[in-house]
Amino acid sequence: MDELSVTVVIADRPYKLTIERREEETVRAAAKAIEEQMKSYASHFQFKDKQDLLAMVALQFSTSAIDLDNRIKFSEKGLLLKLEEINGLLAVALEK
Asked: What is the dihedral of CA 77, 79, 81, 83, to 10 degrees?
């Protein structure tokens, strides 16, 4: 395992992480996305502290992740049904 020590800053706080080297780009992109979304919320909504912004970003990203997961499950189920249908057609064709 090729590990790397990185520091990302979220809500003006540095977080030192040990991650696999192959994850670095994803982790940095995630931290950047959080910061950008926090700035967007800060410019459009009133907030008491950054905790409010972090909560809204967490809710948005979690909602998006759950929605995407549900879409993938739905697509996989549809794909499985189609593959079973094709398999049945192939079985009938091979019997002839």
From this structure: -150
